[in-house]
Amino acid sequence: MRHVPAPNAPATDAFAALLTDEGRALLDELRDHDPAQELATATRLRRDHPADLVSAALGQARLRQRAVAKFGAEDAYRMFFTPNGVEQATRAGVAAYRAQRFSALGVRRLADLCCGIGGDAIALARAGIEVLAVDRDPLTCEVVRANAAALGLAELIEVRCADVTEIDTSSYDAVFVDPARRGGRGRIFDPEAYSPPLSWAVEAARKAPHAALKIAPGVPHEAIPEDAEAEWISDGGDVKEAVLWFGTDPAARRATLLPGGASLVGRGLPDPAVRPVGRYLYEPDGAVIRAHLVAEAAAELGDGGLIDETIAYVTSDELRDSAYAAAYEITDVLPFNLKRLKAIVRERGIGVAVIKKRGSAVEPEELRKKLKLAGANSCVIVLTRVAGAPAMLLGQPARA
């Protein structure tokens, strides 16, 4: 959790018990435990260990299992987490990419404000950067210290429990701020309702030679400061975050696709012209779409154009390899008609269908139920608009 009120003392005490030899031994024993058998496991362990310690260890074991998806098994089973920390922590690959950007800028000392459980601090330290990790939640700070020690990074990560707005960052080469974007009612969409507010984070960034602010990927472009580079990052095809960079390339717009690391930078190109659907359909990565760089992605495809002026699908008669878009070979372009579609999938023996939608009111899972797919063949069904009219495109993934 980032920049939140301090927890009560019992939570910190329970965590401290996990750092004892007994607590660590329990966690090692619970590494591969089955959550479905948790009641029986708890009953067995309470015969030899205090009940509070068993409860804390089981909770931490569950968090470690959840954290494997973000941190990998090798790190996750050595680290410590809080429930909010697992949910809000930066994925390890994304944090490593950002740390390398800081390192390439010559950053050697960085203040990580609102550090959470330390995911970014760990990546920065592994890149050789000295980190001041700041959070005002005492439990979170204890977790960061434990993680730094567990991963052999304690000499590079200094943890300070404080309000980030009171930290003097003047002696640091860079600042990284990851404001809390969740409150008691869930996700926060107003940047000024972040904790701390985005306006404060921007001013803190402007005081440093280099800075990065992690924000929600849905941020309106008009809310981005003119002196900031905005970068949207996807990992494995899922858009994970947007970052405002200061001290790099003001006003630039960038889409970065991990794990490959391909990075597309805006050139101010006009939107592609609308053209008839060609043999191939390209679906730009979500980071490319969020960064408003569909025109730049289309420019790599030769005769690439839009299928509709409001839809981020690009079409072309040529198949070209693109790091920024998935390609599909289109076999059918038809007005949307459920009866016709049911007949086609039945006649072709379609048992597996990937259903995509953009600009369509039809829900893919509802459509899937109605199609009653059966057979040995597969296809891709795209529900969209072509030149303003509802349409369905059928095809297969294309390989350049």
Low-pLDDT parts are 1-8
Number of strand elements: 18
Largest sheet: 9 strands, mixed
Count of discrete alpha- or pi-helical segments spanning 4 or more residues = 14
Rg, rounded, reads 25 Å
- Helix vs. strand class: alpha/beta
Which percent band covers the strand fraction?
25-35%
Helix content: 25-40%
Gap from first CA to last CA? 44 Å
Largest sheet: spatial strand order: 3-2-1-4-7-9-8-10-11
Look at the structure and give the mean pLDDT. 93
Shape: globular
Describe this entry's structure for a reader.
The longest helix has 21 residues, at 51-71. Helices cover 32% and strands 26% of the residues. It contains 14 helices and 18 strands. The chain is α/β, with parallel strands linked by helices and 400 residues long. A nine-stranded mixed β-sheet has the order 3-2-1-4-7-9-8-10-11, with helices on both faces. A seven-stranded mixed β-sheet has the order 13-14-12-15-18-17-16. Helix 1 crosses helix 4.
Layout of secondary structure:
Blueprint: H1 9-18, H2 21-29, H3 38-45, H4 51-71, H5 73-76, H6 83-88, H7 92-104, E1 109-113, H8 119-126, E2 130-135, H9 138-150, E3 157-161, E4 174-177, E5 182-183, E6 186-187, H10 198-206, E7 210-215, E8 229-235, E9 238-246, E10 253-258, E11 262-265, E12 280-284, H11 286-290, H12 294-299, E13 305-306, E14 314-316, E15 325-335, H13 338-347, E16 350-357, H14 364-371, E17 377-386, E18 389-397
Parallel strand pairs: 1-2, 1-4, 2-3, 4-7, 8-10, 16-17
Antiparallel strand pairs: 5-6, 7-9, 8-9, 10-11, 12-14, 12-15, 13-14, 15-18, 17-18
Helix pairs in contact: 1-4, 1-9, 7-8
